[in-house]
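Milestone M4 deliverable, item 7.
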Amino acid sequence: MTEEAEMSTLADDINKQIGAGRKSIERSLDEMKEMEMPKLPPAGLVAAGLVTAVVAVGIVGWLVYRSRRRRTLVQRLQAALPDSVRDLPQGVRAQVKRAL
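Output delivered:
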């Protein structure tokens, strides 16, 4: 074979390898496009979740604080009395207080 024919054959081989590489890359790109990427939630949704969590923690904290706080004697007595006693007129209430 002549030198020119050998170079032509070598160039054809290189072109075939380049073409095969390009096809391989194109297939890989097509496969990547078909893959489903995990969808991240928008920043607003994350912020809303954080605000909701902070509010929930605040409410739970307030409820715990209220349940642990010691009530005064007057508050405990008022809670123990039925509503009908609290609804009595002032005159009857005064008489009950004097009797105690």
